[in-house]
Amino acid sequence: MVFSPNVDPKLFDPNRHDSTFSGYADDLVCLLDQLHVNLTIYLGHSMAAMVGCMAAINRPQLFPHLILLSGSPRYNNDEGYQGGFERSQIDAIYRNIDENFLGWPGEDETRDALDVATTVFSSDLRTRLPQVLVPCTIIQSREDNVVPESEACYMKSKIGGDAEVMILDPHGHFPHLTAYHLLFKVLKVALHLKE
């Protein structure tokens, strides 16, 4: 997948990897096909949660279950919709990346980071959720600074297949890093695994 540590960043194409996430979903399905994976429980975090949804719309037989961790179909607030960010906050993020992005060696990488941020923050996949027909477990942190807790209930109400919501007590957008032991417990319940 583009932007994974062992993938050449030159594979990123802003025209293909756009705010529909279809390019990312195609990459995911292609990777699974190359690995001869015929059935998988997919866990995606944040943007990758929605990539999994788009892939499952196209190839539902490949995904018997999606686990959507801190995902959102739209990060930008809209009338009657709480996505998490006002337009001014998103513009500030873009400026911050453009002016202060540390850790990237050159101008091309900063442009790519801006392209990905633009892709994420301009995405609006709310109308695609009813097309997700595979069972989903939506896991959301109670105090996520990126995705409001209400997003989990919104997604559950819009997903076309069966969906359940599980709320984690830890704060933050990265429970798989900050509270992995609690996440593992929730995953065991979601996947019906015994202790």
Automatic annotation (TrEMBL):
<comment type="similarity">
    <text>Belongs to the AB hydrolase superfamily.</text>
</comment>
<dbReference type="Pfam" id="PF12697">
    <property type="entry name" value="Abhydrolase_6"/>
</dbReference>
<feature type="domain" description="AB hydrolase-1">
    <location>
        <begin position="14"/>
        <end position="179"/>
    </location>
</feature>
<dbReference type="InterPro" id="IPR000073">
    <property type="entry name" value="AB_hydrolase_1"/>
</dbReference>
<dbReference type="InterPro" id="IPR029058">
    <property type="entry name" value="AB_hydrolase_fold"/>
</dbReference>
<protein>
    <submittedName>
        <fullName>Alpha/beta-Hydrolases superfamily protein, putative</fullName>
    </submittedName>
</protein>
